[in-house]
Specification:
two-stranded antiparallel sheet; 5-stranded mixed sheet; Nucleotidyltransferase, domain 5; 214 residues; single chain; alpha/beta
Amino acid sequence: MKIAVSAKGMDIDSEIDERFGRAAYLLIIDTENLNITVLDNAENINAAQGAGIQAASMVSGSGAQVLLTGSCGPKAMTAFSATNIQVFTGQTGSVRQAVERFKQNGLQPADQANVGEKFGMTGGTGGNAGSFSSRTGGRGVGMAGGGRGMGGGGGRCMGGSGQGMGMGRGTGMPGSGNLPPAAASKQESLAELKKQADDLQQQMEAIQKKIKNI
């Protein structure tokens, strides 16, 4: 069996990188002989978006059936679910230790993301998976007609913690400037979720095409 592990280094005794999509390396390990194939994930470390999807595509293309990592965001989890790759989050220590825990059946697969989007990005704000304010990271969302938007979100990362609050003057939804604050907030949240859903759909279609070509 082949196992993918997010790592900070290129050998089996490297420390696990808690960030999946923005891990320094993805190690593909053959559990029979511990042979390692190193996938350099450098181009995804500071990617503005899509790091988890791209890293998930690399894992899928490697033939790995399992991923061991510290954290995994919602889009990557959706991609792994579509390709029947089991994900085991919360892993710490060395790559070797995580592989041994897996071989001894001491792990339980995750059924959902355990961090928000853009987790681990330099200057990013990926917080807990269930928190909308953490995922939006305090981005100010303006409303049409010069309205002001305000978003507060605190994201906690395993490598550090950050909180952000931003005010934005922007290009919100047309006509929302006259809405009560609660209604405007709901429209902004709905628009953000619809955009995320559209992005995810496009990325999933791209992954499916890659899978068919493998």
